[in-house]
Design brief:
about 1000 residues; Immunoglobulin-like; seven-stranded mixed sheet; five-stranded mixed sheet; 9 helices; 67 strands
Length: about 1000
């Protein structure tokens, strides 16, 4: 049931601003036929209580929410709602309202009795009755008022029914209050409610009682405020699966809607001290506790979601001051501390002026009903004051809805009745008792007090209580995935209207990260020593006029280098990664190549000097644009710059001297690479077009189509994979199929991987055997292939399922970072985590690292500061740059051998593996031609599938044949491998779609004229 039933159980800017949004509420009063005789399982008699004070005073404990419950009474409650949201929104939301019928004491009487809408036998039946009552009330108003009531003039709808709410009364068949969503209407009453002669539909609304209690101790304000927040789009934050709090009384969307109030602390006295019970002659003492009159303000997250509050984001170590909501201050009201792309800490200062300063709130009451119209301290009775540290997990929030709530989503159940919460409070007392079923409960005078289960005075942080939250505290600052964030938050003030907080990041140095850059999912790190000081600077092209910087030094300071303009900073416009290399022989050092606009190319070299060339041979629109990053490489036999265009043209040369060559292809150029693909001494240019074609270009106007494939992801990777003396081309299609090509075309292709591919391929000799492996990103894993398109043993390097890593779009980078002779793999995820893995997929110490945004392009690893160890540079899609010194992550990270260190394999974007071999191809130590332990079928048994793999290793060149026999010894299939490779794994595909369930024998034979060996493999097929 998605229905938001009521669970019984922040701050804003001090300077009001002009309302920027208005919500109009239509409230309808609905009554039932008079009960005759009176129904004992319902409160009242089906009609609104219109008695005078004189008639009810003997039954009142406090003079609040008193009859008559007429139009004036409900208008007072809606005015209280308007006043509450004017405060909560800092004047950014104005609430207007009308109450119908317009006559003072009238209501729309339904033909169905109250008890027929009352308690059901099942939860669904209860929900159906609630939704049906809301619908019937709306239709009653529409039928009776006709053209006199225009529903389309309103944004929200409330149905107030006669009687008490089932969430608070003691009567079995009283009706629970609820916010009713569109999905509730669809599920229970066949969809949205049509009114105004079919011209308007109502898709949601609020169902509320006329009152919470008959004694004056329960108020309607909290219920109304919470349901209206649902109307505005705020989700409930309770643990609805267990009917428990999850964030406590600091939140309107949890138990804070009905904070318990100690009346005497407000100077409020009951009308009498007790009610006399004539039946037992005992006095029923009147409680000092009130409920429902004073809802807490929405927590900071809720106000941010509604656009009423903008947090200050802190990503580097800093000390900040945080102001409470009620004071006039230009200080931040909320601090956001990102700990990954999907998690952050949110700090706010919540103060009860009543408890901290001893200031008794001022209350304005309506006459004659005693409705609490306004109060100047909505946080007077929050559980505790100080800095609240909220832990927000957007992964959970974004995968939750009204049926799977944020703080009790069944998809994130981590233990029985325990959930990974979308929003949780880091409780300062370390007891984790909010929503804890074992916390103490006190039942007194019919009211359940959850005690610390709704929050305690020791949960906020302040001097005088727990004042430090960090890696080694309880609770600690780890992420919800249990990864260390390195964040320490220390509160430096006692409880006060303004509090000072120190925020420290142990994993960050100097001025990193750089944030607030323009979001660019294609931005890719490049580094170059532009100012000649021996250190490499981090480069990132600008894409918006508001951006200022394109370069930062090793400390994260913007680079001062007037190259492309007269200002004293370095700036280059480019949405594509630049290329860095050497092709101007007269210049010392490297060149930097980028594009400025659709028809302009730029080059910088580190004298420093800059040259810009505008293409002039485009005579009429539509003009083409540069569609692929530029390349610096040797082609065919001299260093050149290479450009690919949207009209299919490719140009190269040294354009400072206007020496050039070109070729025209039929489709837009998607990516380029350079390698020696054929047997001559010159390099060839490989061009991928947007329609999946692979072209081999040998010189001007000389191109050869070598493959037409499905759409290709990213760029090709080039190396001599099989060590035969010529380079091979590795490309990956979107379905996750790896293709290995030579100048003659496709020589190997893999089966598509589960979930498809998401990144360009990268290359390295991971297992140190002298052959080159191909790595590519998939769904939540890295796939690793042998040079012949066969999956490496183990197949994939998986990330923890709990991380929900998603599609790995960022190609990994590979280096020996710990100087152990083995290669390590670093890869970024959309969740803002950088994983460090050994070549066998084991996690490296200190990883994963976190950055404040999603990662969709390759990180970069290089020795930027020339100290012999490596730095890691990461760009996020939301405009942040982070730099890590690896030796600070772990003191053992002192290696500096880079194999594939950035997108494209090198700074020149050539796609070529620059260090092709780590290991040597040793003569095989295996005497057997077809080793028994390396011959098997997988999966085995074969369940509900139509294809298996016969995997084997041969130590020398041989012909391999697989013959399949059924249990009767009859041959049912004969399979061969067309080109098995020695000294590596090979596979034969076996289609079992036509096989019946049962046992089969695979006879695998390898023969080369001098040796013949046979292996028998038992296989089960289950369908």
């Amino acid at each position: 049931m998605a229905l938001l039933l009521y669970l019984v159980a922040c701050f804003v800017y001090a300077h009001p601003v002009q309302a920027i949004e208005t919500y109009r509420i239509l409230a309808l009063r609905i009554s039932f036929p008079v009960e005759s005789p009176n129904e004992e399982t319902t409160s009242g008699n089906g009609t609104f209580d219109l008695r005078t004070f004189a008639e009810v005073q003997d039954s009142l404990a406090y003079p609040f929410d008193m009859p008559p419950h007429n139009r004036t009474y409900f208008e007072a409650h809606l005015q209280a709602l308007a006043n509450y949201y004017a405060t909560a929104s800092n004047g950014q939301l104005a609430v207007q309202y009308d109450v119908y019928p317009q006559a003072e004491n009238d209501s729309y009487e339904l033909t169905t009795s109250l008890i027929e809408y009352g308690n059901g036998r099942t939860r669904n039946e209860v929900s159906e009755r609630i939704v049906r009552l809301f619908r019937d009330g709306i239709l009653a108003g529409d039928n009776i008022e006709g053209d006199q009531l225009d529903f389309s003039q309103y944004d929200a709808f409330a149905v107030f029914h006669a009687g008490l709410g089932g969430e608070a009364s003691q009567a079995l068949n009283d009706i629970p209050s609820a916010f009713i969503s569109q999905s509730d209407l669809i599920e229970f009453v066949e969809g949205p409610i049509t009114v105004d002669n079919g011209a308007f539909t109502i898709t949601s609304g609020m169902l509320l009682p006329e009152a919470i209690s008959t004694s004056g101790r329960g108020g309607l304000n909290g219920t109304l405020a919470r349901f209206f927040a649902s109307q505005l789009g705020l989700p409930g934050l309770s643990d609805f699966e267990n009917d428990l709090p999850a964030v406590g009384d600091w939140s309107l969307m949890d138990t804070g809607a009905n904070n318990l109030i100690e009346a005497d602390k407000l100077g409020l006295q009951p009308l009498r001290t007790s009610f006399e019970d004539d039946d037992d002659d005992d006095d029923d003492r009147i409680s000092n506790t009130l409920i429902g009159f004073l809802p807490s303000l929405p927590m900071a997250w809720s106000r941010i979601k509604l656009g009423w509050l903008t947090p200050t984001t802190v990503t580097r170590s800093d000390t900040v001051r945080i102001a409470a909501s009620h004071i006039q201050s230009g200080l931040p009201r909320a601090i956001k501390i990102p700990i990954s792309a999907t998690e952050y800490f949110l700090l706010e200062n919540r103060i009860s002026r009543l408890k901290v300063h001893g200031q008794v709130p001022n209350i304005e009451l309506s006459q004659p009903n005693g409705v609490w119209l306004s109060i100047d301290d909505h946080d007077a009775f929050i559980p505790g004051s100080g800095i609240l540290i909220w832990h927000v997990d957007d992964t959970v929030i974004n995968n939750s809805d009204e049926r799977k709530s944020i703080n009790s989503n069944p998809n994130y159940e981590i233990d029985f009745t325990q959930y990974r919460r979308g929003i949780s409070l880091e409780e300062g007392d370390g007891l984790l008792d909010i929503g804890n079923v074992s916390a103490s409960r006190v039942i007194q005078n019919g009211i359940i007090s959850f005690s610390t289960i709704e929050g305690s005075e020791n949960d906020p942080y302040y001097v005088g209580n727990n004042a430090i939250f960090g890696p080694d505290t309880t609770p600690n600052s780890n992420s919800n995935l249990s990864y260390a964030t390195g964040v320490t938050i220390e509160i430096l003030s006692p409880q006060a209207d303004t509090m000072t907080v120190a925020i420290r990041f142990s994993q960050q140095q100097n001025n990193w990260p750089v944030t607030n850059l323009a979001p660019n999912p294609n931005a890719t790190p490049r580094v170059m020593d532009l100012n000649g000081n021996g250190n490499k600077e981090v480069l990132r092209g600008i894409t918006q006029e508001t951006e200022i910087y394109s370069g930062w030094d090793i400390l994260g300071v913007p680079l001062s280098l007037p190259v492309l303009n007269t200002d004293n900073f370095f700036q280059f416009p480019s949405s594509l990664p630049p290329a860095i290399g050497e092709f101007i022989n007269t210049a010392e050092g490297l060149e930097f190549l980028s594009h400025n606009s659709n028809a302009t190319q730029s080059i910088i070299w580190n004298e420093p000097k800059e040259f810009t060339h505008t293409i002039t041979d485009f005579t009429s629109p539509p003009f083409p644009f540069l569609s692929t990053p530029p390349v610096i490489a040797t082609f065919p036999d001299t260093p050149v710059d290479i450009w690919g265009w949207s009209d299919g043209r490719i140009g190269w040369g040294v354009f400072t001297s206007l020496k050039r060559g070109s070729v025209a292809l039929p489709s837009e150029i998607q990516s380029l690479a350079v390698g020696n693909i054929d047997t001559d001494a010159d390099n060839e240019l490989i061009a991928i077009t947007e329609n999946g074609q692979v072209h081999l270009i040998t010189d001007a106007d000389q191109s050869q189509l070598i493959a037409s494939l499905d759409p290709i992801i990213g760029s090709p990777a080039i190396a001599d994979l099989d060590q035969d003396g010529t380079d091979d081309i590795a490309v990956v299609t979107q379905n996750g199929q790896l293709h290995i090509l030579t100048a003659e075309g496709i020589v190997y292709q893999s089966d598509p991987v589960a979930g498809g591919a998401a990144s360009s391929p990268v290359l390295a000799d991971l297992d140190n055997d002298g052959f080159i492996e191909v790595l590519l990103g998939g769904m939540g894993r890295l796939w690793v292939f042998r040079f012949n398109g066969v999956l490496q043993n183990g197949g994939a390097l998986d990330f923890p399922l709990k991380d929900e890593p998603g599609a790995i779009q960022a190609s990994p980078i590979i280096a020996d970072i710990n100087a152990d002779g083995e290669l390590e793999i670093l890869v970024g995820s959309p969740g803002g985590l950088i994983y460090g893995l050994t070549s066998r997929g084991h996690a490296l110490p200190g990883f994963p690292l976190s950055v404040p945004g999603p990662i969709s392009t390759s990180p970069l690893i290089d020795d930027l500061d020339n100290d012999g160890t490596l730095e890691l540079v990461v760009f996020t899609t939301n405009g942040a740059i982070q730099l890590f010194h690896l030796e600070n992550i772990d003191p053992n990270y002192i290696g500096n051998q880079i194999i594939w260190g950035q997108l494209g394999g090198s700074a020149g974007n050539s796609g070529k593996l620059q260090q092709p071999r780590v290991g040597e191809i040793d003569p095989p130590l295996i005497i057997s031609l077809l080793p028994e332990k390396r011959a098997y079928v997988y999966p085995n048994p074969i369940r509900n599938g139509d294809r298996a793999k016969i995997r084997f290793y041969i130590s020398n060149t041989a012909d391999v044949r697989a013959t399949i026999y059924n249990p009767l010894g009859e041959k049912v299939d004969d399979l061969t491998h067309s080109n098995p490779q020695p000294n590596t794994e090979n596979e034969i595909s076996w289609d079992v779609s036509d096989y019946a369930s049962g046992f089969y024998i695979c006879r695998l034979e390898a023969s080369n004229g001098t040796q013949t060996e046979v292996r028998f493999i038992k296989v089960a097929v289950i369908k």
